[in-house]
Amino acid sequence: MTLYLDYAASTPVDPAVAAVMAAALADPELQGNPSAVHAPGRAAAARIEAARAQVAALIGARPAEILWTSGATEANNLAVLGAARFRASRGRHVVTSSTEHASVVGACRQLEREGFAVTWLDPDGDGLLDAQQVAAALRPDTTLVSIMAVNNETGVVQDVAAIGAVCRARGVLFHVDAVQAAGREPLDVGAQQIDLLSISGHKFYGPKGAGALFVNGRTLRRVEPLLHGGGQERGLRPGTLATHQLVGLGLAAELAGARLDADRRAQSALREALWAAIARVPGVLLNGHRARRACHILNVSVEGVEGESLLLALEALAVSSGAACGAASGEPSAVLRRLGRSDALAQASIRFSVGRATTAADIDAAAAAFVAGVAHLRRIAPAAA
Amino acid sequence: MDYSQVVRRHFSEPANLGPLEPRPGECLCRGAAGSVAAGAQVTIEAAVRESQVLRLAFRAFGCPHLIAACSRATELLAPGPVAGLAAFAPEALMAELGVPAEKLGSLLILQDALRNCFRDWDTTQPAEAR
Fold it and tell me: pTM for this one?
């Protein structure tokens, strides 16, 4: 039985969420197209609007500011491409960081191909960006800043509110990829002065294939859609809405909000217990800032072992080597390289991430497997390795 | 990445891990190749007497396929003629272990280490000891 410690990659659907989704799928009253004006359509739309309010409440937004998407990749692309393209006549400069998720990096690379200039900010060795770095990068033609709230590999938490204040003062839109933060860190789009914010249901015990983009009221009609078709989601994201998916996403958001404090406390304690247990192994290095980190992620590099062998030695654990999205490439993690780790250390990195079902016994078992796995590989390695 | 059962067995319980202690009448030859920075490093030790490898041991830093290949190669090449170290070619092992083609580079590190071990024997042993 594999011990699941990859909650940053995906969380299991909460049973209550699965139940409400299954019920919505089976409910004969909810089979209409939510865009239709007849009673079955209106019934489905009403459930979707209730879900919109649930998601809005998680981040301190108004329901009308939530757009449904297929997930975070689409939300990030819509935010970055849509906002930058809409403002192209005003300016063609965007600021982001070199440690963003691939969906933001990819969208910014696309902007570069379209002739935009992108400033890629490098975080410090702890993975942190300074709001003053952002301020210094702003130019008269800057229209958008995109910075993630919690790094998906290291769990480092950026000072989103400070960056938001800088952007608001300069009249620049601020997009936050909050995929790892939603349900784990407090989010308030008003207090943090966020204009656009992306979330994904399956990161907080909701369904895969369902996400949302918050677009604040002043920005709503100033984003260019990626897709063209019907007028759903104010024309910004056309396509028939998936009633059961969104009902599930809504309940998952409500539960995440209700459980936020308890989940944070419990998961922080588990993460710290795991770090305390594996930090005793010589040559185990914590990646990212020691304190400014989300509750669920622990990322370490291990000296003297090779990354692929480390993963096989830890086969009893479902963990990630670097980011799940990039691990298939076999390349060392670019995020860890940016933090100053060598290729070898970036490759020999493990991301543990805990969740609601993780127990203290799981942490003990994971630590024991890690200690044994590293010892095994070091017995095999040449003395100087 | 999927691994064959034989790779898994050699990875979990590698045969012939170094270091070797030479016994009376044996000479100990060494070969190394690769580096940690390059992602793969192998050291080979051979206990040789009268041109025969009596025992062979390895240490390896690298992917599971490389570790398994080192382990299996030490089983295949000892006991055996010392010339076998120089003649080792990884292709047959790749088929036996189910090593994907893109891992050939890793196994060439093993080949280099074995050749360097043979070279150590060839250059340091007086002719009468062969």
Answer: 0.93
pLDDT of residue A323 exceeding 70: no
DSSP code for A14: P
Interface membership of B30 toward A (CB under 8 Å): no
Q: Flag whether B126 is in a domain.
A: no
Domains of chain A: 3-9+260-380 (3.90.1150.10), 15-255 (3.40.640.10)
CB of B13 closer than 8 Å to CB of B64: no
Could A304 and B61 be called an inter-chain contact, meaning their C-beta atoms sit closer than 8 Å?
yes
**pLDDT tens, position by position, B73-84:** 999 999 999 999
B63 inside domain: yes
Average pLDDT, chain A: 95
Cα→Cα distances A56→A63, A213, B13, Å? 5, 10, 54
Q: Please state the domain count of chain B.
A: 1
Is A21's pLDDT higher than 80? yes
On chain B, the residues whose CB falls within 8 A of the CB of A331 are none
CB contact under 8 A, B63 and A306: yes
C-alpha atoms less than 13 angstroms from C-alpha of B36 in its C-beta half-sphere? 18
Residue B60: domain span: 5-121
Let me know if A325 is a catalytic residue.
Answer: yes
Task: Tell whether A380 lies on the interface with B, counting CB pairs under 8 A.
Answer: yes
Interface check A347 vs B, CB under 8 A: yes
Sheet holding A93-97, edge to edge: A66-69, A211-215, A196-200, A173-177, A142-146, A93-97, A117-121
A383 to B59: CB separation less than 8 angstroms, yes or no: yes
Specify the pLDDT at position B127: 63
* pLDDT tens-digit series, residues A168-211: 999 999 999 999 999 999 999 999 999 999 999 999 999 999 99
CATH number at residue B79: 3.90.1010.10
Residue B81 lies in a domain: yes
DSSP annotation of B43: E
Residue among A306, A379, A384 whose CB faces B39 most closely:
A306
